[in-house]
Automatic annotation (TrEMBL):
Pfam families: Mur_ligase, Mur_ligase_C, Mur_ligase_M. GO terms for biological process: cell division; cell wall organization; peptidoglycan biosynthetic process; regulation of cell shape. The lineage of its organism: Bacteria, Pseudomonadati, Bacteroidota, Bacteroidia, Bacteroidales. It comes from Paramuribaculum intestinale. Catalyzes the addition of meso-diaminopimelic acid to the nucleotide precursor UDP-N-acetylmuramoyl-L-alanyl-D-glutamate (UMAG) in the biosynthesis of bacterial cell-wall peptidoglycan. Pathway: Cell wall biogenesis; peptidoglycan biosynthesis. It is found in: Cytoplasm. Its cofactor is Mg(2+). This is UDP-N-acetylmuramoyl-L-alanyl-D-glutamate--2,6-diaminopimelate ligase. Carboxylation is probably crucial for Mg(2+) binding and, consequently, for the gamma-phosphate positioning of ATP. ATP binds at G111, T112, N113, G114, K115, T116, T117. It is an enzyme of class 6 (ligase).
Amino acid sequence: MKLSHLLSAITVEEVIGNEEVEITSLECDSRKISLGSLFVAVRGVNVDGHRFIPIVTVGGVAAIVCEELPERLESTVTYVKVSDSAVALGFLASQWYGNPSRQLQLVGVTGTNGKTTTATLIYEMARLEGYKAGLLSTVVNYIDTEAVHADQTTPDPLTLNRLLRQMVDAGCEYAAMEVSSHAAHQHRIAGLHFAGGVFTNLTRDHLDYHKTVDAYLAAKKSFFDNLPATAFALTNADDKAGEVMLQNTDARRHTYSLRTRADFTGKIVESRLDGTLLALNGHEVEVLFTGRFNAYNLTAVYGAALLLGWNPDRVLVDMSRLVPVAGRFQPFHSTDGVTAIVDYAHTPDALVNVLSTIRDIVGGRGQIITVVGAGGNRDKGKRPIMAREAALRSDRLILTSDNPRDEEPDAIIADMREGLDARALAATLCIADRREAIRTAVSLAKEGDVVLVAGKGHEDYQEIRGVKHHFDDREVVQEALSQL
Ligand SMILES: CC(=O)N[C@H]1[C@@H](OP(=O)(O)OP(=O)(O)OC[C@H]2O[C@@H](n3ccc(=O)[nH]c3=O)[C@H](O)[C@@H]2O)O[C@H](CO)[C@@H](O)[C@@H]1O[C@H](C)C(=O)N[C@@H](C)C(=O)N[C@H](CCC(=O)O)C(=O)O
Ligand SMILES: Nc1ncnc2c1ncn2[C@@H]1O[C@H](COP(=O)(O)OP(=O)(O)OP(=O)(O)O)[C@@H](O)[C@H]1O
Ligand SMILES: N[C@H](CCC[C@H](N)C(=O)O)C(=O)O
Ligand SMILES: [Mg+2]
């Protein structure tokens, strides 16, 4: 592809050199370039990509996109100056892959919790409606029915557009994707053409990265600020940040709610551990999901489905055919009446939601035993709050390791313990070995009790100092239950 064709997709400040040069590949990582590549120098979180300009020049790149021109210019390289390389990379990646997001109806889902669930269900719903569809999510990506391993919630622009291209080539008409706050902030989604955006909720997470709640909100809001007028923007009217999200969007504004008047309303008629009778815009449907938070997700999916123009009657029927996402409120039962639930709750708010849901259903008839940890190298401020919220809503609490990454497991547990008063501490055990922690919780449970194993959900690894060791809460839980 000619450089000039790529450049027609971005706003350039200055070009020095030949714009008609042939580009053999588009890269933002100096370790991946080859002869004739276009290298985009992005200022990252750890390092400034501009640092690698001398290396890629020696490596034979044909052109370089950057925010700051190097002092020494080579006659063999075309230099393109832009005001924001990360934004440029997004648009260039779209152009490189033939703008696949314009050939699909792409729906983005953002918010602190519920992104994976909501995006996955929109994908499932498209398939139930008879369409080929794609999915980009924390758990797994799908190109029609082909599962592709997911490294990140929202991949970098090159991976993202490559996957969207594969979806279009496979005949997909729809795609759903999660838009993480990191991705929005780093412009990983720049250049994408969305048919719709959904906001789930905003509570505390990732303050290690965004520093303040306002900055975190601004990152999520930027997704809606950039939606085109042709798109729909569907927000949660019950969330404090719901209205703010749509303040500056050009998209068509719509709301969903479980509490007030909205375009799409959900009402829990009856709740059980294995399902809910839900009324969507007044129509009753039996769904295979539990909890108020899932009623929110389903109402959002229902709204998105109607805004995509699918048949309302068929959508209602298909809502009852949707099945829960791996590791999200996934129940396991022992033969003697103990239930264990594996859930991905890894924020204070998610723990509150999941534990309140369990308490509503169990009532005073059984005890709740919670096993939870917090990830290393992530938001430290949420640790004591997670422990406190879990202790408040559990009869017994076992603090353990999540992914310790580069931190000491005991130090993370100590941070969590800071949130507990003397009474809570008396009902709390600290067992850093997660397998031991789960086994202990299960062995403490009696008939009618519920063990909640929170934080890792679908993850099948434990990340310790850069190495992922196989570990799966669901396997450990099943093994422990079978030994009761
Ligand atoms: C902290 C963070 O978000 N980092 C992301 C970021 O990388 P970075 O800014 O650190 O990159 P960098 O290492 O500083 O490098 C800057 C530039 O120099 C280039 N480089 C670097 C080294 C080199 O030798 N040569 C070279 O050219 C890099 O390719 C890059 O273009 O941009 C990369 C490309 O998009 C991401 O893969 C990377 O995600 C890292 C791996 C990560 O762990 N991110 C997590 C926090 C994350 O994004 N999580 C969210 C989900 C959160 C949630 O669950 O809600 C997600 O979307 O997955
Ligand atoms: N709408 C919701 N509101 C609050 N909590 C929710 C909601 N949906 C799910 N949860 C809780 O949050 C956990 C994570 O759900 P999900 O994976 O769908 O969210 P996510 O936004 O994709 O998370 P991540 O950012 O880590 O990928 C669930 O296991 C559940 O405990
Ligand atoms: N994808 C999110 C959630 C991780 C969940 C938890 N298991 C952890 O490792 O902290 C993150 O990377 O922050
Ligand atoms: Mg997710």
